[in-house]
Write a structure and sequence with these properties.
The chain is mostly helical. The chain has a domain of about 45 residues. The longest helix has about 50 residues.
Length: about 60
Amino acid sequence: MGIFWDLIQESKIQDQQKQADSQEERIQYLEAELTATKELLRKTLIALEEHLGEDIDGDGVTGE
């Protein structure tokens, strides 16, 4: 019975490791997506400010 219990426990440990690895990959992916989204938003804001000639984000600068 002991060897089967050890195998079950080892299997559960491996499953948890796979889940943790996939969560780390997901976090890295989401962080990269967030960075890209923020950059796109910044570029869009700059273009909009330049087009309208107004300071939209309140930083005191138009288009930068």
